[in-house]
Please model this.
Amino acid sequence: MAAQAAQALSAVHAAQVKAVARRLGFAAAGVTTLAPVPHADALDRWLDAGLAGNMRYMHRQADRRKEPERIAAGANRAVVVLYNYVTPDPPKPLASGRVAKYARGQDYHVGLRPALERLAAFIRDLGGPDSVARPYVDAGPVPERELAQRAGLGWIGKNTMLIDPRRGSFTMLASVLTNVDLAIDPPFEADRCGSCTRCLDACPTAAFPEPRVLDATRCISYLTIEYRGDIPGPLAERMSDWVFGCDICQDVCPWNRKFARDGDDEILHLDPARGWVPLDAFEDLDEAGFAHRHGWTPMERPGLQGMRRNCAVAADNSSHGERR
Ligand code: B12
Ligand code: SF4
Ligand code: SF4
Model:
């Protein structure tokens, strides 16, 4: 009897948490355990093959990514939320570089944090004095896509993205790790990619050695954001006009073409106009000017030098004509 009552209470609490997540601006929420991830071997193979490039933190965090119960002391549940950030792509102005949709305004690590903290506070209140509820927005070793799939929010596509069947993949993931007893959701078991290979075929740098494996060292997102130094010529010449991130393997996905919806971006208010930057935008800026204009966006990561490098590559590609 007592067990049944506890089960009913955990279901009620989970429903309340999801309702609060939606009120706070998240498109969907799911609950799962922090049991070891089933694809730990895929992470090991990826790291051993050097596909993480210079992202040393991926090596440092590997043990906790594989066993997420080790991330936040006492926590045994993850509340995973999706934030829908899709923005329209305006026409290209002359001599400009393309910016990935997620980066067209406030950095989501900062921007989503207050809402996630409020969600964590709500969860803590449900659990009482000894409860733990720690928010994570793409920080720390949380295996976000694996947890989202297990929390029923979608499947992991051949482009490695978490795809929500009702919204597509232009979503950010965030989570609250907790010890509060919340009823878990069934995992999303289906693979709805079927025989499609559009993302694999469209990648200009051939960054997918096989479906669901991304060689980050060839990915434009990695090259423009994470990589330091000169971008190797054979890759640079395939980067076209991308100067920050890349959306190609998502833009071609039928699940985005059919279901991605503008207008849900209630927290970050990303600006489609920031989807293009003039290729000379960074030439006359000093560090203070860069911090003022772009320091609050994800461009802070490559910084002024990185953005100058990226724009030089795009200018070079434009002067040689589009190669894709
Ligand atoms: C490192 C990283 C990158 C690297 C490497 C990307 C990669 N595919 O690994 C780079 C810099 C290239 C990158 C790029 C981008 N990223 Co990124 N990135 C991360 C980060 C920090 C870790 C990802 C990771 O664990 N990689 C390691 C590899 C081995 O993991 P994986 O490819 O996901 O594979 C795992 C599963 O797929 C699973 N698996 C393997 N086979 C199978 C089979 C089945 C059936 C199943 C179910 C699972 C499964 O096992 C693997 C090991 O755990 C996460 C945030 C986080 N904390 O998790 C964000 C994250 C994945 N990135 C995100 C975004 C938005 C992007 C970009 C779209 C940004 C952009 N526009 O430029 C691109 C997309 C490129 C792409 N196609 O993935 C979002 C993705 C949201 C979503 N809906 O999926 C995340 C979750 C950040 C966030 N909080 O929202 N990213
Ligand atoms: S983000 Fe761009 S470069 Fe990276 S895998 Fe997707 S299509 Fe290829
Ligand atoms: S483009 Fe096709 S194969 Fe790639 S993720 Fe989308 S549905 Fe899956």
In short: The chain has a mean pLDDT of 96. The two ends are 65 Å apart (CA to CA).
